[in-house]
């Protein structure tokens, strides 16, 4: 073996991996929620991707995913993209400093065809508009390379002093 | 006690209670899905109501419900309302004959304020437009009497021969 530096690919860091513990419990995307979906939003070129694996109980009509899982995945992916994009606009990437947190303002989902339950759902997102307080995100949800749903969400920067209970 | 007929209130029948077994597995509203949310859509006046009780794991920011649960509840309530309304338009109520099944075409959710996790979410829906193949449903989601989210969905009548796997 040579003595040169061996380049090991770094594992991809998702923006949700970097949320502080007290805001890392979301059922959709919190890394600390052991019952949750664990949406992990990862930068890919000028967009962002995530993968969600449906569980057998996530059925609608047998064989297909229920619409709520698709909406949940697009929702959490959108707030993750907003966070990552705002962080990038401030000169940072995931893992480099503390990214701002976003909440969903509005969510639209268009269901194009039944989404199989026995395959991962791939989310591909891009930022349509980035403002200081508001980020608009478009997402395609694919299964087996076929677009099954489309989403658009407006994410709102979490206000200072957001109510904690 | 008199000998007159004693009127006992009938338990409310939800439209989902009447779905045939093979399409009663939906995570959002299927009565046979023991891990699901069990959205039950019940006629109330000229509208429809349902109640969903969040579980502790359905958190977003601690203390509040994650957006995906709200979208899931509105989604399944909307297809339930579409089914019940189409059934009513054909002269029937839930429990009287077989109601048509609907799938979600599009879903829009507007998140107005954080929704507490420790209280039932009440859904109040009305039909905006009823066509043979397509029903548009508006829903308000309340917690403690306060509207926390609004939804609008277009539900599409399930085509004959919908793919089964």
Tell me what the structure shows.
Two copies of one chain form a homodimer. Chain A is α+β, with helices and mostly antiparallel strands. Chain A is built from one helix and six strands, in the order ββαββββ. Chain A has a six-stranded antiparallel beta sheet with strand order 1-2-4-5-6-3, with helices on one face. The N and C termini of chain A lie far apart (57 Å).
Sequence of secondary-structure elements of chain A? EEHEEEE
What gyration radius of chain A follows from the Cα positions, in whole Å?
Answer: 17 Å
Helix and strand composition category of chain A = alpha+beta
Mean pLDDT over the residues of chain A: 92
Count, helices of chain A = 1
Percent of residues in beta strands of chain A? 25-35%
Percentage of residues assigned to helices of chain A = 10-25%
Which pair has the most extensive contact?
A-B, 44 and 44 residues
Shape of chain A: globular
With strands numbered from the N-terminus, the spatial order across the biggest sheet of chain A is: 1-2-4-5-6-3
Give the termini separation of chain A.
57 Å
| Overall number of strands of chain A | 6
Could you list the spans of chain A in which at least 5 consecutive residues all have pLDDT below 50? Answer: none
| Main sheet overview of chain A | 6 strands, antiparallel
Oligomer: homodimer
């Amino acid at each position: 073996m040579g003595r040169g530096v061996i380049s090991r690919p770094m594992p991809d860091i998702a923006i949700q991996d970097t949320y502080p513990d007290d805001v890392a419990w979301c059922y959709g995307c919190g890394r600390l929620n052991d019952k949750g979906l664990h949406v992990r939003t990862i930068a890919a070129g000028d967009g962002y991707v995530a993968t969600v694996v449906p569980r057998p109980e996530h059925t609608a009509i047998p064989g297909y995913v229920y619409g709520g899982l698709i909406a949940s995945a697009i929702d959490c992916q959108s707030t993750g993209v907003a966070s990552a994009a705002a962080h990038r606009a401030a000169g940072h990437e995931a893992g480099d400093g503390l990214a701002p947190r976003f909440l969903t303002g509005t969510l639209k989902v268009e269901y194009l065809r039944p989404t199989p339950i026995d395959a991962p759902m791939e989310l591909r997102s891009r930022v349509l508009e980035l403002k200081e307080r508001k980020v608009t995100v478009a997402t395609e949800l694919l299964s087996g390379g076929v677009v099954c749903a489309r989403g658009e969400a407006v994410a709102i920067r979490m206000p200072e002093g957001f109510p904690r209970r």
